[in-house]
C-alpha cells in the first residue's frame, strides 16, 4: 500500500516514519493489524537484516578467536538477533516478500554458528523454531542442524534444541509418514564416527523410546539402533547404550504425565476377584482368634496374588517395551557382545563396563532363551565371594539360566557356587547368598540338584543366623513343589499332598485346544445341579478400601510372613481350615453335593406337606437316624423307610437333572465355535478357579518359565535378611534420628532459673511452718554440731591410739 502511494524510504525518512524512529515491537504489532500499510518498513528492515548479516560475517572472518564469538562490536550481533526475531514474527503476513528468509536464516546458523555469541545463537534458534511452528519450515530441514548445534558446548542452546525436537515429534500423529524419514536421519547420525554427534543422536533416540513415542513394531528400527550402539567404536557411546538397556525397567515415567490424558484414570479397569462368600465368613467368624488370624492373612494374600496376576495380564509391563525385545537376531547380538567382552577383558577396560556387558548378555539370554554355553564357563572365573559386586554377577548368572539350557553346561558353574559360598568356614552372608542363588538356579533348571547335595543344604535350616535358615527353608519349600522325592521324609510336608514330577529336558506343555475350554464344558455339565453356586461366590472390585473392609486390621504382617515349616500347627487346625485348604475338585464336589441335598430337601418338604402325621413321625425318625450317622453309630432297622423315601426323592432329582441336560445342547454337540459370551464365561470361570487355587495353595508358588524369563532378577533379593555392618556415619544417622523428638539437654539449675509462673509444690513444702518439736530438735542438733566443731578446731584430731 505504501508503495502504491509512492512512498519511498527517502520520503519516509523525511516524514519521520523511518524504521530507526519506530520500535520493532510497536511496528510488529502494527504490521499484524495492517500488513499492507507497512510493507515499505518491512522492506527497509529486511535490507538492514541482510546488511547486518554481511557485516557480521566480515567481522567474524577478521576477528574470529574462539567459540565465544566476537568481542569487538556486540551491537552488530544484537541488531542482527533483534531483526531476525522481528522477521520471524511477521513472515506469515508476507509470504512472497520473505520467501527466502527461512533459508537464509538456516544457512546463517549452519555456517556461522561457531562464530556467533551465545545470545545470538539462542535468538537465531528461537527464530527458526518460531518459523517451524508457523509452518514456514518443516522439521526435516532442521533436524540434522539442531542435532549438530547440540555439540557446541552451549548448555542453554542444547536444552532448547533437544526439547524442541522431542516435543515436535511427540505432537506428530502416530500414522504420520514423516516418522520414517526422521528416524533415518537420526540413525544415520548415530552410525557416524564423530562421538559428539553420535552421542546426541543416541540421547534423542533413547528419549523418544523412553517416552513411548518411537515404540512398538512399527518403530522397531529405533530399538535395534539402540542395541547396535553397544558395538560403537567410541567407548562412551557403548557405555551409554548399555546403561540405557539395563536401567530401562527402572525408568520413572513421571515426566510423561503431562502427555497422558486425564481420562486414563477413568478408563482403568477395576480388578475383579471372585472370592467364595463362605471363605470370607469363616475367616472372620469361625474358629479361635489365632485360626481366624491365619485364615484372614491367607485370604488377604490370595486377594493380592490374584490382583497382581490380573494386573500383569491386562497391562503391559515395562520389560515388554525394552529394546532387547525387538532384536531381529538376538543370538547374533549376544554372541557379538560376548566376543567383545572377551576381547576387552585384558585391555584395561573398567570393571563397571565389563559388569554392564555381562548383565546385558545375561538379560538377552534369559529373555529370548538363547544358547550361549561358553558364557557359563566365563562366569565361573568370577564366582568367588571376594570379587567386587559379586551379587550382581550371581544375579546375571541366574538371569541367564532357563529351561532350554542343558544342565550339563551349567553344572560346573553351579558346583563352583556351592563349593565357594556354602561351607562351614564361609561367612554367614556368603552362605545365605549362595543358598539363594542355588534356589533361583534350581527354580529355572530342575536337574541341577542331586539328592545328596539337597539333603546337605537342607541342614542349614537349623542355623542360628536368620538369613541362612530362611534361605535353607525357601530351598526346601521349592523342592516340595517341583521334586519332593529328593527331600527326606520329614521335609516333604503333608503326606496327603500330590507328588510333583519334574519335567524332563525339553519337555513343554502344548495346547491342543482353546486354553481353559474344559472349564466351559464342566460348567455346562454342572449347570443343572449347580444353580445355587453363583450365590456363594462374590465378585469384588478389589482396591485398598475394599481390602481393608474385607480383612480386619488385626491381621498383622507377621502372619503373612509365616513359613511353611509350621505344618504341624496347621495340621492341628484342620477342623477350622478344612474348608479353605482343599483342592479344586474337592470344592466342586462339595458344591454339587450341597446342591443335590438342597433339591432333595425341597422334595422332602413337598412330600411332607402332602402326607399325614404318621409320615411326619417317619421324617423325625429319619432326622434322628441322620444324627446317629453323624455321631458315627450304626443305623437301625427303623431307618429303612426313611432311607427308601430319601432314595426316591434323590432319583426324582436326578431324573429332573437329566431332562434339563437333554433340553440344553452341550458344548460337544455344538459346532465347536466359541462366541464372545463363551470367552467371557471362560474368563469368569478362570477367575473363580484362580481364587480357589490361591485359597487352597500353601507353600512356594512356582512361576511359569515365561514369567521367569520376563522377570528381572534383583541382586538385593539375593541378600535378603542379611544385616550388613554399618559405618560410623550410618550409626550417627541412626543416633540422630532417635533424638529428633527429644529436646536439647539442660541442667536442672538452668531449668529452674528459666522457670516462670511461681514455685512448684515441692518448693512450697520447704516453706511451710514446722511443728514445735521439730524446731527444738533441729536447734539442738545445730548446737551440738557447733560445739563439736569448736572443740576440735584448736588441735588436730588424730583419733584413738590402738596400742594404748
From TrEMBL:
Any single GO CC term annotated in Swiss-Prot or TrEMBL for this entry: nucleolus
Q: Does the keyword NADP apply?
A: no
Please list the residue ranges annotated as the SDA1 N-terminal domain. Answer: 86-463
| UniProt-listed InterPro entries | ARM-type_fold, Sda1, SDA1_C, SDA1_N
Q: Where is the SDA1 C-terminal domain?
A: 757-802
* Pfam families recorded: SDA1_C, SDA1_HEAT
Asked whether the keyword Nucleus is assigned, the reply is: yes
Q: What is the protein name stated in its UniProt record?
A: Protein SDA1
What organism does the record attribute this protein to?
Arabidopsis arenosa
Amino acid at each position: 500500500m505504501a508503495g502504491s502511494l509512492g512512498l519511498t524510504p527517502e520520503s519516509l525518512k523525511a516524514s519521520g516514519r523511518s524504521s530507526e524512529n519506530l520500535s520493532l515491537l510497536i511496528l510488529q504489532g502494527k504490521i499484524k493489524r495492517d500488513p499492507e500499510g507497512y510493507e515499505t518498513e518491512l522492506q527497509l528492515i529486511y535490507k538492514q537484516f541482510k546488511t547486518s548479516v554481511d557485516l557480521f560475517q566480515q567481522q567474524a572472518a577478521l576477528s574470529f578467536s574462539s567459540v565465544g564469538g566476537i568481542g569487538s562490536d556486540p551491537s552488530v550481533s544484537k541488531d542482527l538477533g533483534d531483526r531476525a526475531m522481528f522477521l520471524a514474527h511477521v513472515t506469515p503476513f508476507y509470504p512472497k516478500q520473505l520467501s527466502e528468509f527461512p533459508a537464509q536464516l538456516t544457512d546463517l546458523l549452519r555456517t556461522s554458528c561457531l562464530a556467533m555469541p551465545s545470545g545470538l545463537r539462542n535468538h537465531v534458534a528461537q527464530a527458526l523454531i518460531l518459523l517451524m511452528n508457523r509452518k514456514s519450515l518443516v522439521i526435516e530441514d532442521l533436524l540434522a542442524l539442531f542435532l549438530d548445534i547440540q555439540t557446541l558446548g552451549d548448555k542453554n542452546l542444547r536444552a532448547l534444541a533437544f526439547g524442541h525436537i522431542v516435543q515436535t515429534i511427540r505432537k506428530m500423529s502416530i500414522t504420520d509418514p514423516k516418522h520414517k524419514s526422521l528416524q533415518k536421519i537420526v540413525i544415520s547420525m548415530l552410525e557416524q564416527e564423530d562421538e559428539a554427534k553420535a552421542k546426541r543422536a543416541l540421547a534423542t533416540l533413547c528419549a523418544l523410546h523412553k517416552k513411548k513415542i518411537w515404540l512398538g513394531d512399527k518403530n522397531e528400527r529405533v530399538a535395534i539402533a539402540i542395541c547396535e550402539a553397544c558395538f560403537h567404536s567410541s567407548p562412551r557411546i557403548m557405555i551409554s547404550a548399555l546403561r540405557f538397556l539395563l536401567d530401562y525397567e527402572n525408568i520413572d515415567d513421571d515426566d510423561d504425565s503431562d502427555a497422558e490424558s486425564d481420562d486414563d484414570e477413568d478408563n482403568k479397569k477395576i480388578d475383579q476377584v471372585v472370592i467364595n462368600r463362605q471363605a470370607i465368613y469363616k475367616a472372620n467368624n469361625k474358629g479361635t482368634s489365632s485360626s481366624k488370624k491365619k485364615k484372614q492373612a491367607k485370604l488377604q494374600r490370595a486377594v493380592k496374588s490374584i490382583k497382581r496376576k490380573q494386573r500383569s495380564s491386562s497391562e503391559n509391563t515395562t520389560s515388554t517395551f525394552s529394546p532387547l525385545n525387538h532384536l531381529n537376531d538376538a543370538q547374533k547380538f549376544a554372541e557379538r557382545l560376548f566376543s567383545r567382552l572377551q576381547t576387552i577383558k585384558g585391555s584395561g577396560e573398567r570393571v563397571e563396563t565389563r559388569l554392564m556387558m555381562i548383565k546385558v548378555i545375561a538379560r538377552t539370554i534369559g529373555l529370548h532363551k538363547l544358547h550361549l554355553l561358553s558364557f557359563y564357563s566365563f562366569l565361573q572365573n568370577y564366582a568367588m565371594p571376594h570379587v567386587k559386586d559379586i551379587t550382581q554377577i550371581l544375579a546375571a548368572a541366574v538371569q541367564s539360566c532357563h529351561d532350554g539350557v542343558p544342565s550339563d553346561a551349567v553344572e560346573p558353574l553351579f558346583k563352583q557356587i556351592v563349593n565357594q559360598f556354602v561351607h562351614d568356614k564361609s561367612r554367614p552372608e556368603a552362605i545365605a547368598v549362595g543358598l539363594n542363588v542355588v534356589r533361583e538356579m534350581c527354580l529355572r533348571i530342575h536337574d541341577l540338584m542331586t539328592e545328596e547335595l539337597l539333603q546337605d543344604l537342607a541342614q542349614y535350616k537349623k542355623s542360628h543366623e536368620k538369613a541362612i535358615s530362611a534361605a535353607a527353608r525357601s530351598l526346601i519349600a521349592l523342592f516340595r513343589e517341583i521334586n519332593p522325592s529328593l527331600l527326606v521324609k520329614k521335609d516333604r510336608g503333608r503326606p496327603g499332598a500330590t507328588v510333583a514330577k519334574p519335567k524332563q529336558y525339553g519337555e513343554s506343555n502344548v495346547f491342543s485346544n482353546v486354553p481353559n475350554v474344559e472349564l466351559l464344558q464342566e460348567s455346562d455339565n454342572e449347570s443343572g445341579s449347580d444353580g445355587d453356586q453363583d450365590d456363594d461366590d462374590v465378585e469384588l472390585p478389589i482396591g485398598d478400601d475394599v481390602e481393608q473392609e474385607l480383612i480386619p486390621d488385626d491381621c498383622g504382617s507377621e502372619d503373612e510372613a509365616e513359613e511353611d515349616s509350621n505344618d504341624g500347627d496347621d495340621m492341628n487346625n484342620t477342623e477350622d481350615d478344612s474348608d479353605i485348604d482343599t483342592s479344586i475338585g474337592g470344592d466342586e464336589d462339595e458344591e454339587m453335593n450341597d446342591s443335590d441335598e438342597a433339591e432333595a430337601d425341597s422334595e422332602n418338604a413337598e412330600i411332607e406337606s402332602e402326607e399325614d402325621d404318621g409320615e411326619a413321625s417317619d421324617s423325625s425318625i429319619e432326622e434322628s437316624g441322620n444324627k446317629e450317622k453323624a455321631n458315627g453309630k450304626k443305623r437301625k432297622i427303623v431307618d429303612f423307610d426313611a432311607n427308601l423315601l430319601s432314595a426316591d426323592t434323590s432319583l426324582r432329582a436326578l431324573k429332573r437333572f437329566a431332562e434339563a441336560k437333554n433340553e440344553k445342547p452341550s458344548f460337544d454337540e455344538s459346532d465347536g465355535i466359541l462366541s464372545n459370551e463363551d470367552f467371557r464365561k471362560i474368563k469368569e470361570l478362570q477367575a473363580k478357579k484362580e481364587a480357589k487355587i490361591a485359597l487352597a495353595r500353601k507353600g512356594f508358588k512356582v512361576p511359569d518359565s515365561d514369567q521367569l524369563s520376563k522377570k528381572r532378577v534383583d541382586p538385593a533379593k539375593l541378600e535378603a535378611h542379611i544385616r550388613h555392618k554399618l559405618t560410623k556415619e550410618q550409626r550417627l544417622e541412626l543416633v540422630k534420628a532417635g533424638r529428633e523428638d527429644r529436646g536439647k539437654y539442660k541442667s536442672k539449675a538452668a531449668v529452674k532459673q528459666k522457670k516462670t509462673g511461681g514455685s512448684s509444690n515441692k518448693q512450697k513444702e520447704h516453706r511451710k511452718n514446722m511443728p514445735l518439736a521439730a524446731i527444738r530438735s533441729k536447734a539442738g542438733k545445730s548446737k551440738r554440731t557447733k560445739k563439736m566443731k569448736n572443740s576440735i578446731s584448736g588441735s588436730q584430731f588424730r583419733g584413738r591410739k590402738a596400742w594404748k
